[in-house]
Design brief:
This is Pleiotropic regulator 1. This protein has a domain at about 160-450: Methylamine Dehydrogenase, Chain H (7 Propeller), CATH 2.130.10. Helix content is about 20%, strand content about 35%. It contains five helices and 28 strands. The longest helix has about 45 residues, at about 35-80.
């Protein structure tokens, strides 16, 4: 029995390529003969498909031109051949009859009827062609002037956590707010005084998401320990666990009208839970990377998710399926925020902040200016959109126009490193007059509008010519 000589994969592939080359090298330079009839048909079909509208306009223009010349010749003949005793109104009536006949032709612009003056009658015949072929002028795009908003200022810094503060939620009564941090503790703070009211321990890793129910005395939390907990605030203890996530849970949202909780995280899914029975109603799969943000609303789409795979998905809650996927962002989407009064939402990514209109996710405009990773956003009923970056920058925008009316660097706590300047989460209180941010220097900062500011002291630096040049 002969021993088969072994060759490397490289040698075998090379030999296969060589055989293929030798087989087809003899006729590789011979192209099939061109059928002129087919080529003409191809070009005629292509030109008719691409430029058929232009051809029709040229035909109409030529027909109108020929008809206009005939009308002008016949008009001149009528004027000079008629007896001097014939009255001018008779000629005008004849001309009107001709115009009525010609008005049946379809034209781009309606033909202006001539006046009784005979000189105008003669001139109109020659000018009708140019009038009919004129296009209507395009409407010049208008740039709306932004609404004036008072500048915001820092008025309180709260310390108490022993790690990065990663999440914040305000209760519906606007009396207190909760924060979660890397120290695995959830802390409840008095909103008016900033004093600590309560500390809740139970998570064994970083707390990444919080939500307070508007209809029940419940606080929901999620973290990097894959746990989703329901806290009864009457007894300050955990009463339910929601098991199912395969990795860290980064974000959560409560449905505003039904007892449904939505959580999402590093396992690339969003899970819909029945708040009472702890049942996993839907597992929304489709993202290919970490789901960093989820929001819910009563109207469709009821669930919106943003992911590190650079996409935003709109979900049908009843069917548990994706309605559409928005792929406009080029980098990871870490934050999504719903407008409290308008049927719109915004998404944040290092490339841009984008605004969208529900329910189909129609793109509205870009908000450019953040030169860092945007971790969080918040918007109040007055149309003030705030975004927080990984480098500690805060940008304040006018929602309607996208005008950036204020930006500043958040003050770092004394003793912390310069790199600990990131803003991780933010929210407005229920009145929209106070902004709460949680940051990497282990503090919670509260901002409010400057009461002493006015349009005279802080005018709008609005230059539409620059904006126009940038947009158009």
């Amino acid at each position: 029995m002969e021993e088969v000589q072994r060759h490397s994969v490289h040698t075998l592939v090379f030999r296969s390529l060589k055989r293929t080359h030798d087989m087809f090298v003899s006729n590789q330079s011979y192209l099939p003969e061109i059928d002129e009839k087919l080529e003409k048909s191809k070009y005629s079909i292509k030109s008719k498909d691409s430029y058929g509208y232009v051809f029709d306009r040229v035909k109409k223009a030529n027909a109108l031109k020929a008809k206009g010349l005939e009308d002008s010749h016949s008009t001149n003949a009528a004027i000079y051949s008629h007896d001097s005793n014939q009255s001018i109104p008779a000629i005008v009536d004849a001309q009107h009859d001709k115009n009525d006949d010609s008005s049946s032709n379809s034209s781009l612009v309606p033909v202006i009827q001539p006046t009784v003056n005979s000189s105008t009658t003669l001139a109109a015949a020659g000018q009708s062609n140019s009038t009919q072929l004129q296009n209507l002028p395009k409407k010049i795009p208008t740039i709306p002037k932004p609404k004036w908003h008072a500048p915001w200022k820092l008025y309180r810094v709260i310390s108490g956590h022993l790690g990065w503060v990663r999440c914040v939620a305000v209760e519906p009564g606007n009396e207190w707010f909760a924060t979660g941090a890397n120290d695995r503790v959830i802390k409840i703070w008095d909103l008016a005084s900033g004093k600590l009211k309560l500390s809740l321990t139970g998570h064994v890793s970083t707390v990444r998401g919080l939500a307070v129910s508007p209809r029940h005395p419940y606080l929901f939390s999620c973290g990097e320990d894959r746990q989703v907990k329901c806290w009864d605030l009457e007894y300050n203890k955990v009463i339910r666990h929601y098991h199912g996530h395969l990795s860290a849970v980064y974000t959560m949202s409560l449905h505003p009208t039904i007892d449904v909780l939505v959580t999402a995280g590093r396992d690339s899914t969003a899970r819909v839970w029945d708040m009472r029975t702890k049942a996993n109603i839907h597992t929304l799969g489709g993202h290919t990377n970490t789901v960093a943000s989820v929001v819910t609303q009563a109207a469709n789409p009821q669930i919106i998710t943003g992911s590190h795979d650079s996409t935003i998905r709109l979900w049908d809650l009843a069917a548990g399926k994706s309605l559409c996927t928005l792929t406009n962002h080029k980098k990871s989407v870490r934050s999504i925020v719903l407008h409290p009064t308008l049927y719109m939402f915004a998404s944040a990514s290092p490339d841009n902040i984008k605004q969208w209109r529900c329910p189909e996710g129609n793109f509205i405009q870009n908000l450019s200016g953040h030169n860092s990773i945007v971790n969080c956003m918040a918007v109040n009923p007055d149309g003030v959109l705030v975004s927080g970056g990984d480098n500690g920058t805060l940008h304040f925008w006018d929602w309607r126009t996208g005008y950036n009316f204020q930006r500043f660097q958040a003050a770092v706590q004394p003793g912390s490193m310069d790199s600990e300047a990131g803003v991780f989460a933010m929210t407005f209180d229920q009145s929209g007059s106070r902004l709460i941010t949680t940051e990497a220097d282990k503090t919670i900062k509260i901002y409010k509008e400057d009461d002493e500011a006015s349009e005279l002291t802080h005018p709008i630096n609005w230059r539409p010519e620059i904006i126009k040049r940038r947009k158009y």
